[in-house]
Amino acid sequence: MILSSYEPKRVLHHFEALSQIPRGSGNEKGVSDYVAAFAKGLNLKFVQDSLHSLVIYKPATPGYEGQAPVILQGHLDMVCEKNAGTIHDFMTDPLKLYVEGDYLHAKGTTLGADNGIAVAMCMALLEATDLPHPPLEVVLTVEEETGMDGAWGLDANLLKGRSMLNLDSSTEGVFIAGSAAAATVEYMLPATWEAPNQFTEAYTISVKGLQGGHSGGDVKLERGNANRILGIQLSAISEEVEVRVVSTSGGMKVNAIPREAEAVIAIKPCCNEQITTDFEKCAESLRSAFRVADPGLEMKFTPAQPVKRVLSSQCNKNFIASLLLLPNGVQCMSRDIDDLVAASCNTGVLETNDEMIKITCMPRGATDDHVGRMEAQISALAQLSGAETRFSQRGAAWAFNPDSKLLAKLAEIYKHMYDEPTITASHGGLEGGIFIEKLPGLDVLSFGPDIHDLHTPDERLSISSTARTWAFLCAALSEMK
């Protein structure tokens, strides 16, 4: 155990143990069973539903028996991203943790502090015998990162509390009192293929070196989206040379800004010099455009093996146009809260098969109307290009509530302990909105320790911030009487 000498000991002990259990979205049974067994070992009542979400009940400590239950909420799953060249099977392999200064990392992969640190804090609270608190209802959901299916599927009748502490935020001292709605949109362009004929020269275009990040929390940083950059490059080299796409791929998760993308293309032999010149001209322009937001951008144009088929001319045009025209990045900013994105979209995953080219997007918005307008935009483009669309996994908006009693109480506690907290809403999707829909009168607040570069292999957790956040959580619960 590499974290045994760090505080808070029990929280980090549980986090390290969780890191040994594969728990990507859709693969949470193992970690759910582990936490269920932990609760059973403490003789605590719990419910594990058919999706493997958990509700664990802990009675109040002496003096708090008459208080209303408090819900503590986080999610069991994590985003599984790794660096190119990293050998790691997220279905079977444990994470390889290491400490560098104040930060905890995983070697070459995401760390899973989003949201494993919440699970670890809940486990530490469940086992503690010296921390005063009202009755606790610990809710640990599954598949939060891919559509919040666990929260949507949870039986609301299992919960009596009307105050919820969501522990899925990633900046210490920032209290989240609202979050965005989101949807997953699959944009499916039918692929029509033909023999290459004169298109006998093949090349691979690759986009690498981008920072990526959380498609909600990091979108305002305007980092490069590898799929969009690939579309810009394909459009640029197609202006003077007829280009046919052979295959394309990019991104891994719809809610992560894609860091890498590539396309195999075919051209006529007479166009080699022209297309090389056009590629380099566009690549230089893009590197200049992202020199501040994403200075590591790399674009390569390398020979590929001869191909057996290419997209038809019209399908090729429709695909490139779709990459350029699908909404991506910040769409508008909030008029109510400074520096808050109100609407955005992420062209997250790009893939090709025999039947179609599929681009999976995630529109987010401060309201359902924001998301609806982007869905309408995607549908309109699909009608023009001949694509089909499928909308799923919609998350509920959690409207910003400046009059929250829970917010006022915890802000006063935090100010007394540390400093005045920053109170805002999040453009990321949090499960609070779903639980507000399910539980009338629910008051929700979200907070957490410093976690940087979520949804990327650079994800890292501040150990000192975790200690301060843990101390605040314990103090907050002790004041709820």
SSE diagram, text form:
Elements: H1 9-18, H2 29-41, E1 46-48, E2 54-58, E3 70-75, E4 97-100, E5 103-106, H3 113-127, E6 136-141, H4 149-153, E7 163-166, E8 174-179, E9 181-190, E10 193-194, E11 201-208, E12 213-214, H5 226-237, E13 244-250, E14 256-257, E15 261-267, H6 272-289, E16 298-303, E17 310-311, H7 313-325, E18 329-333, E19 341-352, E20 356-365, H8 368-385, E21 388-395, H9 405-417, E22 422-426, H10 432-438, E23 443-446, E24 451-452, E25 460-462, H11 463-478
Parallel strand pairs: 3-6, 3-7, 7-23, 8-22
Antiparallel strand pairs: 1-2, 2-6, 4-5, 5-25, 9-20, 9-21, 10-17, 11-15, 11-16, 12-14, 13-15, 18-19, 19-20, 24-25
What would your notes on this structure say?
Helix 1 packs across helix 3, helix 5 packs antiparallel against helix 6 and helix 5 packs across helix 7. The protein has 2 domains: 254 residues, Aminopeptidase, CATH 3.40.630; 213 residues, 2-Layer Sandwich (Alpha-Beta Plaits). It is of the alpha+beta class and 481 residues long. A hairpin with a 5-residue loop joins strand 1 and strand 2.
